Amino acid sequence: MITTTGLTKVYESRGRQVTALDGVDLHVREGEVFGVIGQSGAGKSSLIRCVNLLERPTSGTVTVDGTDLTALAGRGRRANKDLRRARSRIGMVFQHFNLLSSRTVKDNVELPLEILGVSGADRSRRALELLDLVGLADKARAYPGQLSGGQKQRVGIARALAGNPKVLLSDEATSALDPETTRSILQLLRDLNRQLGLTVLLITHEMDVVKQICDSAALMKKGRVVESGTVAELLATPGSELAHELFPVTGDASGPGSTVLDVTFHGEAATQPVISQLSRTYNIDISILGAAMDTVGGRQIGRMRIELPGPYEENVVPIGFLREQGLQAELVAPDADADAGAGAGADADADAEADADADVQEKAAVPAQNAPKLVKEIAK
Amino acid sequence: MSWSEMQPLLTQGTIDTLYMVLWATVVSVIGGLPIGVLLVLTDKGGLLQNTVVNKVVGAIVNIGRSLPFIILLVALIPFTTLVVGTFIGPTAMIVPLAIGAIPFFARLVETAIREVDHGLVEAVQSMGGSIPTIIRKVLLPQALPSLVSAVTTTVIVLIGYSALAGAVGGEGLGAKVITYGYQRFDTQFMLVTVVVLIVIVTVVQLVGDGIVRLLARRGRTAS
Ligand SMILES: Nc1ncnc2c1ncn2[C@@H]1O[C@H](COP(=O)(O)OP(=O)(O)OP(=O)(O)O)[C@@H](O)[C@H]1O
Ligand SMILES: [Mg+2]
Questions:
Q1: Confidence of residue A267 (pLDDT cuts 50, 70, 90)
Q2: Hey, are the CB atoms on B123 and A94 less than 8 Å from each other?
Q3: Domain with A313 in it
Q4: What letter would DSSP give residue A329?
Q5: Residue to test with chain A: of B126, B135, B215, B217, most A Cβ within 10 A
Q6: Domain ABC transmembrane type-1, which positions (chain B) (predicted)?
């Protein structure tokens, strides 16, 4: 739905050149929620602004819904009619909402329709429909100044949807909101994605955002995409930084000479009693060093760090068995993250308590000693 | 001069002053608004960035603003005669008044438009809005309270200018003060006229502020 190839953006400011995008190839499939994550200055905003050509790429192409926008735009600095028409099919929401304070909520939502030349009665009907969709039907006549941040962003989303776009771009849409409101806005985006088949490209610096709603994600560093793929693919990629951030499991081997594996369950596999089968079939003792269940991109995923006795060579067959069962089994290099382990273990404890009453996002992370209980849950 | 003698002079003077100021304001707004918008759009980083146009227009506006009004008044006599057919009388005075106020108003417009959050412009660009759309639907409406203030200030400046215009063949309260107050040493008349001017300026300011407050109360807070 959105494809960028070799996208570069070089800013010139006071004679100095800043390369914000350095050859970005991105592919966002139709109907998915794609998250781009990265630190401040990584070039995330530059990327999303290049997608609707608010920022002209220095080189490279941007294709949205089969239209090559970079070709459409031509060489002029000003947006021509073709580009403007294409933009009206791409919705955009902003970190600071960017609502017109001089217009009521309803008139803000009508603005894109005015630009499209929709007649007054139709505009009014559609705006009310959209406000209903985002749960703000009662605020139609209010001014943005009278709304909370979350409500403003709902208006922003309604406005972005007014032109019936197939694609929604979101640059840090929840960064100015508190965690609770963030969750509700993300849920709204998720619902719209499902209901309307809307493709969403969102920018964030919060891993939780990716976790809650993204089907796919990319990690940006210094103007480049260093990792990208569906969340499942990423979790299956050995050494993936995103996977580790999305879903950390930790735990130290009990001693040298054993094999430590990170096992990832999703979908069907999570419901099979694989670990006990493994233990019975090969008659081996399995220690569980750490385990966690989480919801990533709306799917239940479990991760577990297990220890098998003996070196890797002796465990090739059991590992093969796990993979046959549809699990991802990833060998952990000894001492790979022994340091990280200690800190994260403490975090996991706190999480486990906090989660007793967490409802929106189910999450359980337990250190090794509590693990058997969790295994039963996974096995169920 | 008795009150009954003063009254018709004051009434006629007020009518002439208001007539000159009103029309000069209308012309200044029509002329100054596009110039102010143009200055913002052609500026560096603007939607229609154009250094040459920006510098030239900026220079003309600065010259217009730095010229003392009394000099402008005299210098424009040939031009006024060309446009109105005469350089005397309230209608003729509208020409120098407006030309004096256009650069002033244009700068105020420029400042007001610059205050509009660029994020709003981007939002409308992302919807496919053209530059005229951005001007009509974002820049002007969002800057409206500041623009109203700018008009108020311009009206008050024009009232001051119009009094000066009385010295060069104009009409209005200024001309009356010069004829009766200054040339005939009628201090009492001069004082009464000053009071009338103060009242007019105060009313204009109050009305302008009232409109701004009304606009602000419609929920126009930040964002
Ligand atoms: N208009 C501009 N002119 C000059 N340099 C710019 C401009 N916009 C961005 N940059 C630079 O490009 C780089 C990438 O910026 P960008 O805004 O894309 O980062 P980001 O990933 O969105 O960061 P953040 O998370 O802080 O929003 C930064 O080094 C920034 O300073
Ligand atoms: Mg950014």
A1: low
A2: yes
A3: 254-333
A4: E
A5: B126
A6: 14-208
